[in-house]
Design a protein that fits this description.
The chain is an alpha+beta fold. The chain has four helices and 15 strands.
């Protein structure tokens, strides 16, 4: 009888947690949007790319995201007690990559307008969620942040940026005629997230945040 895969639970075919790479690659099968969390400090605007954003509650209105405990940007945002979650649009791949990298001026040549308590609302995003910091919780090597939503704005004409298995993806259009009877738009091609390799966005948001 063949020996089971060293990371497989016998009789189930399920791969047990093995290492950070396996964990990252497996969870990369979950498609997500991409956001940039921003704030305005006494030294200027700051922000970082994040995929772990989620709606948490409607009453009260809460959202959450997770940031690496090694982050150098999050303490700056925490001190302001306010932030904006910018939901990136399909055309903002370069912006996502820029805010995921360590070092440098992430706001160089980035257009934005002040939102809730001066937090940067990035031009061209498809939604902006202004928040006050509500809670922080330990989550292993990350901090789970909960924000209370105080302002909302969206541009329904824009498609969101989607990330899946180390690549940016286009939203799939449903088959069949559109409900309004108009022509069905052709799907946009996918593109690699960066020459740095698969899942770099997941890795960099944890390391650089």
């Amino acid at each position: 009888m063949a020996e089971p895969h060293p990371h497989t639970t016998p009789g189930t075919g399920a791969v047990a947690p093995a290492d950070a790479r396996t964990h990252r690659e497996t969870l990369g099968h979950f498609a997500s949007g991409v956001v940039v969390v921003t704030a305005h400090t006494s030294s200027g605007p700051v922000g970082f790319t994040c995929q772990s954003f989620a709606s948490l509650s409607l009453d009260p209105p809460l959202v959450s995201f997770a940031v690496a405990r090694t982050s150098r940007t999050w303490p700056l945002i925490r001190d302001t007690s306010a932030f904006c979650v910018n939901v990136l649009a399909r055309e903002q791949e370069a912006l996502s990559t820029a805010f995921a990298r360590s070092g440098g001026d992430r706001f160089r040549q980035v257009s934005w307008t002040p939102g809730h308590r001066g937090t940067p609302s990035l031009d061209g995003a498809c939604a902006w969620i202004g928040c006050d910091l509500a809670h922080e919780y330990e989550g292993g090597d990350h901090t789970i942040v909960v924000g209370r939503v105080v302002s909302l704005r969206a541009d329904p004409a824009r498609d969101p940026l989607v990330f899946h298995r180390g690549r940016y993806r286009a939203l799939a259009r449903p088959e069949g005629p559109p409900e309004d009877g108009g022509p069905r738009p052709r799907p946009r091609p996918t593109s690699a997230c960066s020459p740095e390799g698969p899942n770099h966005l997941v890795r960099r948001q944890h390391e650089a945040g």
